Amino acid sequence: MALHFEVSRFLYREARLLDEERYDDWLALFTSDVHYWVPGVENRMRRDPLGSITRSHMAFFDDTFMDLSRRVARFQAPTAWAEDPATRHVHVVTNIEVEQVGAEPGSGPDGPSPHGEEPPAPGEMLVRSVLVSYRNRNHDEEDVLSARRTDVLRRTDDGLRIARRTVVMGQSVLLSQNINTFL
């Protein structure tokens, strides 16, 4: 229970940092070797062996730490006209599940990764959650994005850090005018 509480607080803090546009503090929550992947979701028949998500198809984001740093810098630049006036964000994180991998012999995540992600290393944590991101801009621009996230958290000298994140959007067609957000 203590581990679940610690991880939940970490994810809630991350959501608050994004809502408050504290992007440098948010970026500090990631490891330098992070992989942040938001694949496109394809509408496929259940019997299609390829599935709705594959590494060989389009991704909204397929980022390293350097890519995330560039996106943060762009958000903070005075020339980021798409964010002036600023978008108001509300990130809601729920359905948090924590699996500590390698803490005991034979311990591991529930089954194979459905999207071909690398399994967590011993001592890392597999964390699943659901995210709803509400965005409002100007007077009438409003978006709601929903997603399922799978994170691998690593304990460092500075506390928990996100080593990998996979975000599977609930939408197969993005109806938003842009995706100027972090999920």
UniProtKB/TrEMBL annotation:
It comes from Pseudonocardia bannensis. Belongs to the bacterial ring-hydroxylating dioxygenase beta subunit family. Its EC number is 1.14.12.19. PANTHER family: 3-PHENYLPROPIONATE_CINNAMIC ACID DIOXYGENASE SUBUNIT BETA, BLR3401 PROTEIN. Pfam families: Ring_hydroxyl_B. Residues 102-123 are annotated as: Disordered. SUPFAM superfamilies: NTF2-like. The lineage of its organism: Bacteria, Bacillati, Actinomycetota, Actinomycetes, Pseudonocardiales. The keyword Oxidoreductase applies. This is 3-phenylpropionate/cinnamic acid dioxygenase subunit beta. Signal peptide: none annotated.
